[in-house]
């Protein structure tokens, strides 16, 4: 099982910091290298102008104030103005270019992750709750952007600036510089101590935050059920615990991260104070012009910020890399259901479907299907009936290869579906699920998902067959009316008819129907039923049937109980069977339309 949202730290140590960094650079370096060169150029200008501003302090003090050279005032002031203007421009271009690259990166990883999610098996989505997954992805993609911008900015700007300033310091006073740099090792030691804790706390924090946002999203989706069952308080209490836990972890992360601050500030304060004391002492004792000392202290003060950022670099990188690694965990997930090597395209003639001794479990070891065998003849309608939990929907999932059987074969027109490509298999199938999912877009778009190259006329024809045309025309913008999340603007029966139109447009030889158990009003039910009958015509249909009329009209009825076929026949033959399961279910079902799925 691929659980991405566990709170385990198991994978935290997998792959070192450098490994993730190298991968991010390998994947993105080439694409952006021109922009990066430009950024580095800007950063070099920033560094050089900063070093220049410190260096010129010596002349400001010695020439203007000490030697009182009037002629140099204008030159030096102009040079400082020029340096600051150049620095400002370089900063602007560097920042905008970096932001643009960052946004581009986020977009490209979003596309990659979405494509990966789309190609992942259904089992992945069973293991990971969608709301949390979305929150996790959104929080983590920023990590990849941060890794790149942190390393570029810190290295090119802060490191180069620091080098420039250190050169200025050495030129002014070599001994003092050496003394000042004793603090270096102290800083490294302090920061290494902090970054050790960062990884595990970051991972846990991201997961908890994703849980909070995910739970909220799920609650919003199920708001009507929450209201109906007056679950508001219960759920609020439940989420409060998660929120509290997340708050506590966020605080912990802040404390761990900010431990760097006192370490760097105190050490830097010692260095500045030491330099001033020593320099002041020497200036007074040796009666030297103060310019060099001023330039040194200015360089030291300028060096303070980049040195601080460099010291924090490891800590910030650790956080960003944890995020990046979580994205790579998704991108690197192995597809459990790869097409077999050399898999051919499925060729459907009639569309006969056969199950041969199929065993199946959902990965938790509990057998759901046991040696299940049956045949659904081509161009005929086969109804699957049986008690709830018998395995009927599972059969429908297996035909589409959402999961693979643990043993046994599923054949379509004699071809084992294990040996054909998944896309060719699914192209031959139209599926109408229990829940009529509508996606963001117009009604027209939603029907067209059945076959992207369908013409408008074909879509309208399909909607007419699905008894949807009339109500669609009554909508504010007809076929162009947007449907909201889950199609909230349409009724249940209307949504079902739109999804039937989608199946009709697909025009596939095999139709799989998981009939909705939710009761519709009589008129709506009649329209849906009538639409279904039209779409079934001439196709090989397997229907998980709950409505008596569907079952009665089926060419063949297969009664499934506890993952096995217990009876096969027609309504007429099975109803007559004394003590047969179908006869019993049918008897109980009389008078109620959806009573065939009783225990
Ligand atoms: P119903 O008529 O209520 O929809 P069904 O006959 O279609 O029931 P299935 O949905 O196929 O039954 O479920 C068969 C068994 O498999 C049940 O015991 C169910 O708990 C289990 N099951 C279904 N889906 C999953 C899943 N994604 N993961 C684990 N177990 C599952």
Order of strands in the sheet with most strands: 6-9-10-3-11-12
Bound molecules: adenosine-5'-triphosphate
Radius of gyration: 35 Å
What shape does the CA trace take? elongated
Uncertain regions: pLDDT < 50 for 5+ in a row?
Answer: 5-14, 591-595
Biggest sheet details? 6 strands, mixed
Helix content: 55-70%
Description:
It is a single chain. The protein is α/β, with parallel strands linked by helices. The chain has 3 domains: 10-331, ABC transporter transmembrane region fold; 351-428 and 508-523 and 531-599, P-loop containing nucleotide triphosphate hydrolases (Rossmann fold); 440-507, no CATH class. 64% of the residues lie in helices and 10% in strands. The chain contains 21 helices and 12 strands. The chain has helices at residues 17-55, 57-66, 70-119, 122-127, 130-172, 174-180, 183-221, 223-228, 232-258, 260-286, 291-331, 392-399, 422-427, 443-448, 456-465, 469-474, 492-506, 522-536, 548-553, 571-576, 581-589, and strands at 353-361, 367-376, 381-385, 407-412, 415-416, 429-432, 441-442, 482-483, 510-514, 540-544, 556-561, 564-569. Helix 1 runs antiparallel to helix 3 (70-119) and helix 1 packs antiparallel against helix 11 (291-331). 36% of the residues are buried. Residues 5-14 and 591-595 have low confidence and may be disordered.
Topology:
Elements: H1 17-55, H2 57-66, H3 70-119, H4 122-127, H5 130-172, H6 174-180, H7 183-221, H8 223-228, H9 232-258, H10 260-286, H11 291-331, E1 353-361, E2 367-376, E3 381-385, H12 392-399, E4 407-412, E5 415-416, H13 422-427, E6 429-432, E7 441-442, H14 443-448, H15 456-465, H16 469-474, E8 482-483, H17 492-506, E9 510-514, H18 522-536, E10 540-544, H19 548-553, E11 556-561, E12 564-569, H20 571-576, H21 581-589
Parallel strand pairs: 3-10, 3-11, 6-9, 9-10
Antiparallel strand pairs: 1-2, 1-4, 4-5, 7-8, 11-12
Helix pairs in contact: 1-3, 1-5, 1-11, 2-3, 2-11, 3-5, 5-6, 5-7, 5-11, 7-9, 7-10, 7-11, 10-11, 15-17, 17-18
């Amino acid at each position: 099982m691929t659980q991405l949202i566990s709170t385990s730290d198991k994978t935290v140590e997998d792959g070192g910091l450098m490994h993730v960094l190298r991968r991010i650079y390998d994947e993105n370096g080439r694409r952006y290298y021109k922009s990066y060169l430009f950024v580095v150029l800007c950063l070099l200008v920033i560094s050089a102008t900063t070093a220049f501003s410190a260096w010129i302090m010596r002349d400001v003090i010695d020439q203007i104030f000490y030697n009182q050279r009037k002629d140099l005032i204008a030159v030096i002031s102009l040079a400082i103005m020029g340096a600051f203007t150049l620095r400002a421009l370089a900063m602007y271009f560097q920042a905008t270019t970096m932001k643009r690259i960052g946004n581009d990166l986020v977009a490209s990883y979003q596309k990659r992750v979405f494509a990966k999610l789309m190609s992942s098996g259904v089992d992945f989505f069973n293991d990971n709750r969608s709301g949390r997954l979305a929150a996790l992805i959104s929080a983590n993609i920023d990590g990849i952007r941060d890794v790149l911008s942190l390393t570029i900015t810190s290295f090119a700007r802060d490191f180069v600036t620091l080098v420039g300033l250190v050169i200025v310091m050495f030129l002014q006073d070599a001994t003092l510089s050496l003394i000042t740099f004793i603090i270096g090792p102290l800083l490294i030691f302090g920061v290494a101590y902090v970054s050790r804790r960062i990884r595990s706390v970051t991972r846990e924090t991201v997961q908890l935050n994703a849980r909070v946002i995910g739970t909220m999203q799920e609650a919003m989706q199920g708001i009507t059920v929450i209201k109906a069952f007056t679950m508001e308080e219960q759920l609020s209490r439940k989420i409060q615990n998660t929120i509290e836990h997340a708050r506590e972890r966020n605080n912990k992360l802040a404390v761990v991260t900010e431990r760097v601050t006192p370490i760097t500030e105190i050490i830097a304060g010692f260095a500045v104070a030491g330099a001033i004391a020593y320099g002041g002492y020497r200036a007074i004792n040796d009666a030297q012009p103060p310019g060099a000392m001023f330039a040194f202290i200015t360089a030291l003060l300028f060096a303070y910020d980049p040195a601080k950022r460099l010291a924090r670099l490891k800590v910030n990188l650790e956080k960003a890399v944890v995020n990046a690694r979580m994205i790579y965990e998704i991108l690197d997930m192995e597809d459990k259901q790869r097409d077999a090597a050399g898999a051919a395209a499925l060729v459907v003639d009639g569309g006969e479907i056969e199950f041969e001794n199929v065993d199946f479990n959902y990965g938790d070891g509990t057998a759901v299907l046991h040696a299940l065998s049956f045949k659904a003849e081509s161009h005929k309608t086969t109804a699957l009936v049986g008690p709830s939990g018998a395995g009927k929907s599972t059969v429908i999932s297996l035909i589409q290869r959402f999961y693979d059987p643990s043993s046994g074969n599923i054949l379509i027109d004699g071809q084992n579906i294990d040996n054909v490509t998944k896309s060719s298999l699914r192209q031959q199938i139209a599926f109408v699920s229990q829940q009529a999912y509508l996606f963001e877009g117009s009604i027209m778009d939603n029907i067209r998902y059945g076959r992207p190259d369908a013409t408008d006329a074909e879509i309208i024809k399909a909607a007419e067959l699905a008894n949807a045309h009339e109500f669609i025309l009554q909508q504010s913008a007809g076929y162009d009316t947007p449907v909201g999340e889950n199609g909230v603007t349409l009724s249940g029966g209307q949504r079902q008819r739109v999804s039937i139109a989608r199946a009709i447009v697909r025009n596939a030889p095999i139709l799989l129907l998981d009939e909705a158990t939710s009761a519709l009003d009589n008129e709506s039910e009649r329209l849906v039923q009538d639409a279904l009958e039209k779409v079934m015509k001439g196709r090989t249909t397997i229907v998980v049937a709950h409505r008596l009329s569907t079952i009665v009209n089926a060419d063949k009825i297969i009664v499934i109980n506890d993952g096995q076929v217990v009876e096969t026949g027609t309504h007429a033959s099975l109803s007559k069977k004394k003590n047969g399961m179908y006869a019993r279910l049918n008897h109980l079902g009389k008078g109620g339309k959806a009573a065939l799925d009783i225990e």
